[in-house]
Amino acid sequence: MKVKLAKTAGFCMGVRRAMNIVLDAANKKKGRLYTYGPLVHNPQVIEMLKQKGVDVLDDDSVNKATVIIRAHGVAPEERKKLKEGGNLLCDATCPHVAKAHAIIKKGIKEGYSAIIIGDKGHAEVNGLLGYADGKGFVVEEIADVEKLPELDKACVIAQTTQDRRVFQKLVARLREKISDIKIFDTICDSTSLRQKEVLELAKEVDAMVIVGGKNSANTRRLHEISLSSGVPSFHIEQEDELDGLGLEQYENIGVMAGASTPNWVILKVIERIKRLLSKRRGKLYRLLQSLGEFMVESTLYLSLGAVSMCYASLIFQGVRPSATILAIAFFYVFAVHIFNRYNERLKDEFFDPARTRFFRDCGRPLIISAITASFTSLYLSYVLGVIDFVLLLFSYLMGVIYSVRIVPERLRHLTKYRRIKDLPGSKDIFVALAWAWVIVLIPALNNDIYFSYKSVSILLFALVTVFVRSVVFDIVSLEGDRMVGRETIPILLGPKHTQTMLLVLTVIIGLFMSLSAAFELVPQLGFYLILSPVFMVICLYVFQKRRIQASRLFEAVIDSNFILTGVVTYLWQLV
Prior knowledge:
four-stranded parallel sheet, 24 helices
C-alpha cells in the first residue's frame, strides 16, 4: 500500500513567485494591502492571506493602497485605473502570462487579430483580451471556431494552463479556416509536465486524487485528463473530502495537485490518505509505525542522536565515556527541541499539519517532560561540578534571551529586528552552538582538556554538522517560514544558493578533518566522521529532486546521521 506524490504537484513557478511577492509585502505591511482579484484559485490560500491582512479587491475603486497584480495578470485599462487612484502596484503577473501579453500587443500592431484558446471568463483570458484592443476572440471548443467572423490574418495563443491536446485540435481547425495565421504555443512547461505526469502516474496506481480549488482551471483539467486514463479519479479541495470516497479499497494511490495548491494542503491530504490506508495494516505494523512516529515527533530519536554525537566526541578526545555526561546531552537536547517545536507550532500548521496535531494532542505532557528534563540535566551537571552547572545554566539562559525582546518599544522604528530570534539564520547558529556547548565543551572542561587541537576539531565538526542539519530543515520548511514571516537563510539566499553553501561547508569540514587525521593531529576516526554531513547533503539533494517527501521518515533519515556518527565511532574502536 503506497501513496505516490507526483513530482510536479503543487505551486508552479508563477504562483510561487506571486506568493512570495504577497508574503513579503504582508510581512513588511505598511497601510492597506490588497490583491486585485483572488491571488490564485485556491480557497485555503485566500483564507491564509486574509488572516495575514491581505484582502481581495473586486474592483478598482480603492485609493492610496498597495495593490498586488495577481499571477493571472490584468488588462491595461484596469492597471491604468488602479494607478490613477494613487495606488502602489506590485506586479506578480506570471512571466509566462506576461510573454503572452507581449505576443498579443505585437500581433495587434502588425494588423493581426488575436485568437485566445482558453476558458471564457477566466481571469487570465480576460487579461489577455485587454491587450487585443477589441480585436480578440476566445475559442474554447470547435463550435467557437466555426462562429468566428471572416479573418484575413490572426495570431493564436493559448491560456497558459490549457490542455495541449485541446490546443492542438483547435489549432488544426483554425489553420484550415484562416490563411495567414501565426501560432504561439504559450502553454507553460509546468502545465505540460503536470498533464504528462498525471497520465503516467495514473498507469502506476489504482486510483488518483487530484488536489486543488474547484474553480481552478488547471486543476479541473488535470482531473479530466486523469479520468480519461480510465483510473478512478477524485478531485478534492481539502482532506476532509477524502472520507467516504472508499480509498481504503485501493492498493496504490497517486496524488497530483494543481499549480495553485499550497504544500500544506497537499501534506494534509497525504497524511489523511495514509491514515485511511493504515486501517488495512495489521495491529503490529500500526503499533510499530505509531511508535516510530512518536520517537521522531517527541524528539526522543533526535535526543538519542545527541547521545551518539556526545559519545563520538568523548572517544575522539580520548576521554572515557561517562553515563552522566551522556545523560546530560540527552535531557538537554530533548528539553530544548521540545520547547522550540512548541514555539514553532504556528509555522507547523502551514508546513507540517501532522506535527500540529501531535502537539495539540500531546503538548501538555511533552512540555511537562521538557521541564523535568531541564531540571534533571541541571542536577546532573551540578553533580559533575559547579563549573559544569554554570555552563549548562548559561546555555539555558541564552535560550531564554534568544526569544526575549531586546530593542525597547521606543526604538522599534530603528530596526525590524527586536529579538535575537528575529535575526536571519540566528536559529541555526544558536542550535549548533547549543549542541556543541553540551556535547563537546562541557565534557572537555570537565576532563581538564580545555582547548586542545582535538577538542577544537571536534567542536568545529559538531558545529558544522548540527548547523547543516538545521538549515536542511529550513529548506524543507521554506513555505511555512515565509507564511509566518520568518527570515531564514534559505529565504534570504534562495534554496539553490543555500544548498551550495551547505555543500561548501561540508567540503571544508571534510578536508579539515581528513588533513588533521592524515597529519596525525587527531585520531584516524576523523576520516570517518565526515560521513555524517556528507550523508545529510546527499539526503537534501534527493529531497530537492522530489524523490523523497517531507515526512517523519525523511526527518528520521536526516537525524540518523547523528546515530551514524556514534556507530562509526564504535566500529572504529573495535578495529
